[in-house]
Amino acid sequence: MSVYTPVTEAELAAWLGNYSVGTLAALEPIKAGIENTNYFVTTSQGRYVLTLFERLPAAELPFYLDLMAHLARHGIPCPAPIADLQDRYLQQLNGKPAALVTRLPGRSLDAPGERECGELGALLGRLHLAGRSYPGYLENPRGPKWWRIAAKEVMPFLKKDRSELLEKELRFQSEQRFPDLPRGPVHADLFRDNTLFEKGRISGVIDFYFAGVDCLLYDIAVCVNDWCLKDGAALDAGRTRALLAGCQGVRPFTPLEQAAWPAMLRAAALRFWLSRLHDYHLPRAGMLVHAHDPEHFRRILEDRVRAKAPWLA
After folding, report:
1. pTM for the structure as a whole
2. Separation between Cα atoms, residue 228 and residue 63, nearest integer Å
3. How far apart are alpha carbons 288 and 49 in whole angstroms?
4. Domain 114-307 - what CATH class?
5. What residues have CB less than 8 Å from 230, skipping those under 6 apart?
6. Bridge partner residues of 24 (DSSP)
7. Long-range contact set of residues 289-294: C-beta below 8 Å, sequence gap at least 24
8. What are the C-alpha distances in Å from 11 to residues 8, 24, 50, 139?
9. Taken in order 150, 152, 155, 160, is the CA torsion positive or negative?
10. Distance between CA 271 and CA 279 in Å, rounded?
11. Do domains 9-102 and 114-307 have the same CATH topology?
12. Which residues of 18-50 are buried (b: 16+ CB within 10 A; e: fewer)?
């Protein structure tokens, strides 16, 4: 697990005095995550998740928390931030910005089928529609500007064939222009482990701390590249069609989105290859979880380059 900032029960009990959530009953570190410190918190009034933000700029945090509150008000099953007694979502705990949000029921699925992929697609469509009325703005923090910075930092660690693939894909993506694609707030990290199911239905989508404003199609590509894989890298046609059909049933795709789909799948693969390369070669002090294998998304990127995936909805 990653616990960069330890919190004792006594410290948390005192901190919870800023909230109307009852008295502390249990505190449990969450055995997942790389970016932030997270705990499950149980009080006399309910179950919550405590997050201490380790790297995110303080100026960006209101975007994430206000977005979650906005989506929760619009019926999206995402964590709802809890306001303190001064009506603030953001507090300080042990020198770090911290927030308390509701804990959602359910568990993630390792092997979703077509039905689950279709349900995710429909949820994405609803999330994107709900996001239209959200007034906050933050450019995708792991978008093209970050790609170039991260690539420069990891390039010295790469073998020739990997560095050539990275350079070639960065050039390709720099030539893509999508000014007319629908844009809005996107989750940008809605992998299987960030989606909870209970009794066969999605009960929660969590971890909005990579969210930002980007092409809505990018959000869908991120999901397809994780939810719809077969044989490690290639797309499973049935699950991909189900996910896209679920989206399209809520928010019909435009012809421009259909044309941009192959490039967007490549962009989503590039982003996660780069982030995994960065975590693997340049780990932070205190990171106690093993970094994900960068080769997984390198293989996905190479497949997307070769396959030139058709629009499957």
Report:
1. 0.95
2. 30
3. 20
4. alpha beta
5. 236
6. 43
7. 289/1, 289/2, 289/32, 289/33, 289/34, 291/34
8. 5, 11, 13, 35
9. positive
10. 12
11. no
12. bbebeebeebebbeebbbbbbbebebeeeebbb
DSSP state of 74: T
Q: Is the dihedral of CA 158, 163, 167, 169 positive or negative?
A: negative
Q: Of 268, 263, 277, which is closest to residue 227 (Cα–Cα)?
A: 268
Contact at 8 Å (CB) between 43 and 25? yes
Alpha-carbon distance of 165 to 262, in angstroms, equals 17
SS3 152: helix
User: Tell me: the pLDDT tens digits for 191-206?
Assistant: 999 999 999 999 999 9
Paired strand residues for 93 = 96
List per-residue pLDDT tens for the chain, 313 residues long. Answer: 467 899 999 999 999 999 999 999 999 999 776 789 999 999 999 999 999 999 899 999 999 999 999 999 999 999 999 999 999 999 999 999 999 999 999 999 999 999 999 999 999 999 999 999 999 999 999 999 999 999 999 999 999 999 999 999 999 999 998 989 999 999 999 999 999 999 999 999 999 999 999 999 999 999 999 999 998 899 999 999 999 999 999 999 999 999 999 999 999 999 999 999 999 999 876 555 556 899 999 999 999 999 866 665 4
Amino acid in position 179: P
Taking the domain 9-102, which CATH number applies? 3.30.200.20
Q: How far apart are CA 228 and CA 192, in angstroms?
A: 10
What are residue 103's DSSP bridge partners? none
Name the DSSP class of 282: S
Q: What is the spatial distance between Cα 31 and Cα 174, in angstroms, rounded to a whole number?
A: 37
Structure tokens at 70: 């906005």
Q: Characterize the bridge pairing of strands 47-52 and 96-102.
A: antiparallel
In this predicted model, what pLDDT tens digit does every residue of 271-309 receive, in sequence order? Answer: 999 999 999 999 876 555 556 899 999 999 999 999 866
**Any idea where the domains of the chain sit in the sequence?**
9-102, 114-307
